[in-house]
Amino acid sequence: MKKYNVAVIGAGAVGVEMLRVLKQRRFPVGELKVFARSSRDMDVDGDIYPVEAVSAEGFRGIDIALFAGTEGEKGAAVTYAPEAVKRGAVVIDNGADFRMDPRVPLVVPEVNAADIKKHKGIIANPNCSTIQMVVALNPLHKKYRIKRIIVTTLQAASGAGKAAVEQMNNETARISQGGFGSVRAEGITRFMAQQLAYNCFPHIGSFADDGYTNEEWKLVKETHKIMHAPKMKISATTVRVAVRTGHSESVYIETEKAIDPERSRQILAKSAGVVVMDDPKNNLYPMPKDAEGRDEVFVGRIRQDPFNKKGLWLWIVADNLRKGAATNAVQIAECLISSLK
Ligand SMILES: NC(=O)c1ccc[n+]([C@@H]2O[C@H](COP(=O)([O-])OP(=O)(O)OC[C@H]3O[C@@H](n4cnc5c(N)ncnc54)[C@H](OP(=O)(O)O)[C@@H]3O)[C@@H](O)[C@H]2O)c1
Predict the structure, then answer these.
(1) Is the pTM of this model over 0.85?
(2) How far is the CA of 7 from the centre of ligand 1 (A)?
């Protein structure tokens, strides 16, 4: 079997998961390089990976570069993705820098794998909350045509990186030492806008003048691009919750045709990457603690709007580091290499 030289850029929450997913899915890796800002050895489940300080020349000989570093003007992807492409690699980027570039396919393999063929060196991995939403909604869109989506996300700490998890853990430890006194953890270094332990806050990303955050607009614009549905009306509220890993979403859809909950369950049960967990009377519905470490998107609480035959509620949960990031990126790489065969 042909092997591919792979680089993982970033050794944080997503980078570590990338290494696990490459191994677990037996991706045909030839040489493997891990890049971060500084060099060291890193232990992932007992495997020691040498981490190198990233450099443009380091990408020489790399076939596939999986970026999970920082975003923005001076971030890893903007600085090094073009250098990797120049040296012959195909880049699959987890950040937001290239997602809306019309030359860059934005891909969730269960939905728009065919877009991969249009790449010119860079393929973008969508935002974690977008990925799980489109995996669950696209099969229903094909049958019932979705006109409108209203979504509230409940996003885990790890969605903001390993420093955010550390913040939540430190706050939790500080508060629990205080017994039933205050639920405020003063003096802990913050990487998120607010204290997260014993808390939730409707603020992910930065606010624009329209009152929405850029995280909320990602759900709108990325869904339009992935589902090839630029006119779909979507509005979102994104909330950070005191969960370590696993994003949950309360989603309302309005469709062109009347939508049936039982038929929707059947459609979703047969859809790639989806697991239906919907027996609420027996306490069965998706929860982040059960989704952690899994690659599927879990859907439950499927129920009709009591006032609208074209309205349906769903509760959608997935591991933000796996299907929301690393697994989706590695699946893109798998599609890419199978198109080269
Ligand atoms: N967390 C999620 O659920 C999630 C989901 C989807 C997409 N994403 C995206 O994936 C990316 C990584 O997120 P994360 O949560 O893994 O972040 P993280 O835990 O904060 O880790 C960031 C990693 O990137 C490395 N890095 C930072 N700047 C770099 C540079 N200029 N060159 C090379 N490496 C650099 C850091 O290196 P050092 O270790 O040396 O400091 C660190 O290992 C972000 O773009 C994020 O938006 C995250």
Answers:
(1) yes
(2) 14
Cα-based distances in Å from 173 to 158, 164, 166, 170: 17, 14, 11, 5
Tell which atom from ligand 1 comes closest to the C-alpha of 80. 32
Q: What are the tokens at 300? A: 């439950």
Distance 179 CA to ligand 1 centre (A): 35
What token pair was written down for 92? 């699959």
Question: What ligand 1 atom has the least distance to the C-alpha of 245?
Answer: 3
Q: Which atom number of ligand 1 is nearest to the Cα of residue 320?
A: 3
> Which pLDDT tens digit goes with each residue over 230-273?
999 999 999 999 999 999 999 999 999 999 999 999 999 999 99
- pLDDT value at 80 more than 90: yes
Among 119, 128, 141, 335, the one annotated catalytic: 128
| H or E, element range at 297 | strand 297-305
Question: Is there a single domain that holds both residue 296 and residue 331?
Answer: no
| Three-state SS at 174 | helix
Number of domains in the chain: 3
- Establish whether 200 is a catalytic residue: no
Residue 145 clears pLDDT 80, i.e. is over it: yes
pLDDT of residue 340: 78
Q: Is 119 a catalytic residue?
A: no
Structural domain for 113, as ranges? 4-125+325-340
